[in-house]
Amino acid sequence: MKKKEKSDENSSMLNELLERQNEAKVVRKVVAIISVSIFLIAIVLFGGGYLYIHSALKPVDPDSKEEIKVEIPIGSGITNISQILEDNGIIKDARLFKYYVKFKNESGFMAGEYVMTPAMTLPQIVNSLKTGKVMQKAVFKMTIPEGKKLTEIAEIIAKSTNDKPEAILATLNDRTFIETLQAQYPDLLTNEILDPQIKYPLEGYLFPATYPFYRKDPTIEEIIHVMLTKTKSVVDEYRIEMEEKQLTVHQLLTMASLIEEEATEKVDRDQISSVFYNRIDAKMPLQTDPTVLYAKGEHQEKVYYSDLEIDDPYNTYIHPGLTPGPIANAGISSIKAALEPADTDFLYFLATPGGDVLFSKTLAEHNEKKAEHIK
């Protein structure tokens, strides 16, 4: 009896071992099938992706003779341009065109109304956009220089339109108009511009550039729309840097405007920027003269000691930190300086009559330079 039990036990163990071996074979077979499947899928995806990209980089229709009018609005960034081209059937894929442009490091695309065909290659499209081969010439151009205040921009607009500067400024300050613009540019015109202390909500938001217009009498709304679109395209290029520096659009344009107003052609703006940031870190008032003049609302060649006592939110001799908002528009160089200040220990700077800017680490050093250069 015991012999039989032992035999049965051995037989059971043998069966169990065989069963485990069979299971292992099945598992290995399943794993092999899955691995091969994944490999094949990867090949298909890679191959399909390669074929798609290869196809997307070719003309939409090499044999097409169709001419398509394509309008590129002023201030359009590469994302907008790519989508416009895809929507008009000039390219196959907006994202791939955008990556192509960035890979080739292309820039300087011009606004206007173009005649394009689906037979154009990507290099031909890029070249056309860079050389500005448009269908019609601008009726007039409006140049907004750097460092201009909104009141001055209103006067420039008035010279190209039938409106008076006062009427233009009233429109630019109209609450309903501002809220309409906010709805169109929510990432640009935040509620920070509605701070009661701000003199002009759109101050600093109309980018300095030369704007071509293709109608003789565009409305104020159309003009401002074109300028804000340009500002948005510029600001959007620096979103990552803004996040790294923890700056809002409003803070960026405000700091850039202070740099713009203090800078001369001979100075590195990043050093002026460093002084402002160093003073903020040291909890010192910025004490920059252009903010005093902005607070006064008057143009004068010199700032007097009595002016420094003006009780106004924009007076950085009295109120620490940034002004409530920009005091003028700022160009690319000042925006970059606001994002990338130089690494210095400077706390003071002095603009000489000759246009040079002298930097100092201490008040004593600053006063010495002031006594030497300012008579």
UniProtKB/TrEMBL annotation:
It is a single-pass membrane protein. The chain crosses the membrane at residues 30-53. The keyword Membrane applies. It catalyses: a peptidoglycan chain = a peptidoglycan chain with N-acetyl-1,6-anhydromuramyl-[peptide] at the reducing end + a peptidoglycan chain with N-acetylglucosamine at the non-reducing end. InterPro entries: MLTG-like. It is found in: Cell membrane. Functions as a peptidoglycan terminase that cleaves nascent peptidoglycan strands endolytically to terminate their elongation. Belongs to the transglycosylase MltG family. This is Endolytic murein transglycosylase.
